[in-house]
Amino acid sequence: MANPAPSYPPSDDLQPPPKPTADSWVDAAKTIGFSVLLALGIRTFIAEPRYIPSESMLPTLRINDRLIIDKVTYHFNPLTRGDIVVFHPPESSGQEFAREAFIKRVIGLPGEIVEVRNSRVYVNGVPLTENYLEATPDYQWGPQVVPENSYLVLGDNRNDSYDGHYWGFVPKDRIIGRAAVRFWPLRRLGGLDHPVYAQP
């Protein structure tokens, strides 16, 4: 006579899931709410993604490149020449533009004398070596002194960029953050090169 099949206690993983209770719905709502607030806080105060809508920063940045903008460190480490920044342009750029976010490269620092002539940018009389340009500038500008707590910003695509040579200087309080990392497209994933300049 065959032995009867052994009997095992029911396994926990075969039990039906417990029915959600009012408390579990409250906990889930709290978790989701906290996650949303955390994401909004990070985006508002720490970092946020941005995409490139124009060709003004060619060849460095292309249309639809996706970047992470660092909104914290420039408050503690001053902006330097060559930083790529996102900002709201001054009112002098036009009311419709003043509400938009632009992205350009920092060229002139507070107190410096900047001039564009003979297809070069001069800072305190010394020409900058700019190997990141789409083309050298075909316009004249300045000389002008960069005001305190302000910056001169220009696009890398010098002759096709609505930037500081049209509307002047960007006050520090209109800067949103510094471009830190390109995360899309994946084939160009990584940090943005920072040029090394000779001291003007």
UniProtKB/TrEMBL annotation:
<comment type="similarity">
    <text>Belongs to the peptidase S26 family.</text>
</comment>
<feature type="region of interest" description="Disordered">
    <location>
        <begin position="1"/>
        <end position="22"/>
    </location>
</feature>
<keyword id="KW-0645">Protease</keyword>
<dbReference type="InterPro" id="IPR019757">
    <property type="entry name" value="Pept_S26A_signal_pept_1_Lys-AS"/>
</dbReference>
<dbReference type="GO" id="GO:0009003">
    <property type="term" value="F:signal peptidase activity"/>
</dbReference>
<keyword id="KW-0378">Hydrolase</keyword>
<feature type="domain" description="Peptidase S26">
    <location>
        <begin position="26"/>
        <end position="184"/>
    </location>
</feature>
<dbReference type="InterPro" id="IPR019756">
    <property type="entry name" value="Pept_S26A_signal_pept_1_Ser-AS"/>
</dbReference>
<protein>
    <recommendedName>
        <fullName>Signal peptidase I</fullName>
        <ecNumber>3.4.21.89</ecNumber>
    </recommendedName>
</protein>
<dbReference type="InterPro" id="IPR019758">
    <property type="entry name" value="Pept_S26A_signal_pept_1_CS"/>
</dbReference>
<dbReference type="Pfam" id="PF10502">
    <property type="entry name" value="Peptidase_S26"/>
</dbReference>
<dbReference type="InterPro" id="IPR000223">
    <property type="entry name" value="Pept_S26A_signal_pept_1"/>
</dbReference>
<dbReference type="GO" id="GO:0004252">
    <property type="term" value="F:serine-type endopeptidase activity"/>
</dbReference>
<dbReference type="InterPro" id="IPR036286">
    <property type="entry name" value="LexA/Signal_pep-like_sf"/>
</dbReference>
<feature type="active site">
    <location>
        <position position="56"/>
    </location>
</feature>
<dbReference type="InterPro" id="IPR019533">
    <property type="entry name" value="Peptidase_S26"/>
</dbReference>
<dbReference type="GO" id="GO:0006465">
    <property type="term" value="P:signal peptide processing"/>
</dbReference>
<dbReference type="GO" id="GO:0005886">
    <property type="term" value="C:plasma membrane"/>
</dbReference>
<feature type="active site">
    <location>
        <position position="104"/>
    </location>
</feature>
